[in-house]
Amino acid sequence: MPRPKRFSVITLALVLVFSSCVYLFAWSPVFTVKRIEITGAPTAESKVLITRASEITIGEKMARIEPRSVEQRLKSFAWVKQVNISRNWIDGHVHVDVVPRTPKAFFNGKTLDLSGTVFELPGFKGTELPMVIASNPVDGVQAIALFTSLPRSFSLKITSLTARPDTNFTMKVRHENRLLNVKWGPSEANDLKIQVFNALMKEKENKRVRTIDLSAPHAPIVK
Predict the structure, then answer these.
(1) Are strands 110-112 and 118-119 parallel, antiparallel or unpaired?
(2) What is the reported pTM?
(3) What are the backbone angles phi and psi of residue 204, rounded to the nearest 5°?
(4) Rounded distance, CA 145 to CA 7, Å?
(5) Deepest of 35, 57, 70, 141, by most Cβ within 10 A of its Cβ?
(6) Predicted local confidence at residue 161, as pLDDT
């Protein structure tokens, strides 16, 4: 007879402990969100967007926050590459760490990264990025590869870069007060092409030149 009674007592104790834990984590004000930290958002506007989309609020029960659901919501933004959510149950600190995509060029009114992903980053200016013109993101990535391979002293002069399906490139280059149309050709012998460009710009007879063909750097054409 004592055994069933002891079993009942143990069962009741376990039920009480379980119920207390459920109340403590799901309903008690003890484990609630006291601080929300957003890191990785590259602009003030993107940080506000992440804060709102996370739907995490101060005073919310920690147990009711589902990291996977939050991550899925935030990853719906094309500019978000990765998201990590962590919760500190002791001090009520929720950390949302965002890994954003890095814009490398403007493409069709939006931005493009090295993976070929097209996205719009809220609040991003990127005045130093080139304008890439291409029929598709893949060709756009080829243009970015060319742009990033060029010396900064030259790439800063490029205002737009057009990629052709045959991997030939043209670009608009601002030199002093002139905007030049430069036929670059394939992405090869780039250092030589820059040397030829600089040499041509020093010649007095080229002061009014508007178009330069560097596709064959040993025989450049100016117009």
Answers:
(1) antiparallel
(2) 0.75
(3) -60, -35
(4) 72
(5) 141
(6) 95
